[in-house]
Amino acid sequence: MKKLALILFMGTLVSFYADAGRKPCSGSKGGISHCTAGGKFVCNDGFY
Fold first, then answer.
1. Confidence (pLDDT) at 22
2. What are phi and psi of 25, to 5 degrees?
3. SS3 of residue 22 by DSSP
4. Comparing 19 with 28, which gets the higher pLDDT?
5. Residue 33: which residues within 8 A CB-CB, separation 6 or more?
6. How far is CA 44 from CA 11, 22, 34, 39, 47, in A?
7. What is the largest CA-CA distance in the chain?
8. Most buried of the four, 6, 17, 33, 39, by CB within 10 Å?
9. Model pLDDT, residue 7
10. From CA 45, how far away is CA 23, in angstroms rounded?
11. pLDDT band, very low/low/confident/very high, at 2 (cuts 50, 70, 90)
12. How far out from the chain centre does Cα 19 lie?
């Protein structure tokens, strides 16, 4: 039972990590500031 709980917990952590990787400006970028006229995201730290 403990193994099953551990496997489920680890699977949840992996899915959260994978989901964050699909979002622009995630992590140390600080989130999305705005979008350009060309449709690109501009992060809060100034990077596209």
1. 58
2. 65, 25
3. coil
4. 28
5. 25, 42, 43, 44, 46
6. 30, 17, 8, 16, 8
7. 53
8. 33
9. 82
10. 15
11. confident
12. 5
Q: Where are the domains of the chain?
A: 2-43
Residue appearing with tokens 């990077």: 47
CA distance linking residue 41 with residue 46, whole number of Å:
10
**Token output for 4:** 């099953």
Q: Residue 34: CB partners within 8 Å, gap ≥ 6?
A: 42
Give the 3-state secondary structure of the chain: CHHHHHHHHHHHHHHHHHHHHCCCCCHHHCCEEEECCCCCEEECCCCC
